[in-house]
Amino acid sequence: MSAPVLFDLPGPRARRRIRLATAVGALLVAALVVLVLVRLAGNGQLEAQRWAVLFDPASQVPQALGQALLRTLQVALIGMVLATLLGLLLAVGRLSEHHWVRVVVSTVIEFFRAVPLLVLIFALFFLLPKFGIRLTAFWALVGGLVLYNGAVLGEIFRAGILSVDRGQREAAYGLGMRKTQVMTLVLLPQATRRMLPVLIAQLVVLLKDTSLGFIISFPELLRGARGLVEFFTLQFGNQYTFQLYVAAAVVYIVINLLLSWLARYAEGRTRRSAKTAATTPAELPADVQMGGGGGAVPAGR
Amino acid sequence: MDFVSENADLFVDAFLATLGLSLLAGLLALALGTLLAAMRVSPVPPLRGLATFYVETFRNTPLTVVFFFIIFGLPQIDFVIGFFPGAVLSVGLYTAAFVCEAVRSGINAVAAGQAEAARALGLTFGQSLREVVLPQAFRTVVPPLGNVLIAMVKNTSIAAGFSVSELSSLLPRLVNADAGDLTLVLVGVVVGYMVITLPSALAVNRIERRVAILR
Fold this sequence. Notes:
Number of helices of chain A: 10
Number of helices of chain B: 9
Shape of chain B: flat
Oligomer: heterodimer
Structural class of chain A: mainly alpha
Strand content of chain B: under 5%
Order of helices and strands of chain B: HHHHHHHHH
Radius of gyration of chain A: 24 Å
Number of strands of chain B: 0
Helix content of chain A: over 70%
Radius of gyration of chain B: 20 Å
Distance between the termini of chain A: 8 Å
Helix content of chain B: over 70%
Largest sheet of chain B: none
Strand content of chain A: under 5%
């Protein structure tokens, strides 16, 4: 939103009212915060020593959280690379000239987009062993993430490829390129460039979804925090529980905010870059920032 | 077929839990999300800031972590909440952030002249939002809003990790009980979700066609 459209620039009376509303709003928020703090303090959650444990290397807490974070990032990275490859494959398949390829690939995409991610992970983790294939929690998690995000990315890439100006394809055929060459040398590079912001945004989704590993006991960040909690509870009771969960949540939020900013930065650059001029605005599949099941609107500016 | 008849009750209960969770969380998300969107376009800066803070925080937190705080965190400040209400609250609060973004994109899409005309008529901010802008905004965002809610139905599956016996929880439970045909369980669970999502998608399409406005 540039200039406010819904309201006039406030005059003296409106400014007074806004100041009043500001004060009341601030008071309400402050009251809520104070209530939470008082309750927390009443339960002794605010003692400095309880928070210090998060930063004290002697307690092994920073190391353990760091390792859990590394495992989370590992899952996210491997998942992202494999999902991107699968997505490219599915996108090309869905744009195939052969009817039966299109039908098969479309069905696959629709199926994996329709099933909740957790159900996919459960299926890989609990059902496959009954058919003699035993996956570790790590690969069940990665597998679920790849299947789900691959299907989503497939749709994103397809939209990207379709958004490349038709003249590009026609010129490439006119130069005598073969189908594969047109796709790999002309269409995909331009589509990928355009899809970069969405790809990064999808990484946020994927990173968030790694926390599902918690449910199948894969020691990612959340489970790692939980593990520490259980360990400390044995020794000192649950006095560090709250702090550890807050730490895990803060790490997620910080990383994801950084990635979101990166996506926005990439988007700004792509917009300015002349090399992407040959694209028409594409209808992207509903963005998937909700994770775990697809479909949310692209974030506003 | 014994397996099916023996576990039919289990399936129906799980399906109803997923359905109830989706409906309640959806209502919460719609109400709160619309309120947040109104806050984000309001003339009062702290309200804007508060809503932005809410949306950015929830969008960047995994739903699993939200669940954690609601179910295990709230008791730390003496609010004890059951697993099912906790799941409704978690899914609803999380989805509200996305509903807010959808509604806001709709508000931004309403032609500026509409809001200007409303102001020229002397309508206050609240009036022009309620009477002029929001009704048009909602009409444009039917498809994205529908997508958000359908995604939410799938996200209710995470409640399985937090002791709510909904559809997804059937998989580990029945596998551990080593009961009968497991492929059937998987098919049942998937069909259960589709029974909710497919008609919703159809309804969204139909509503979209009915309320679409030329722009």
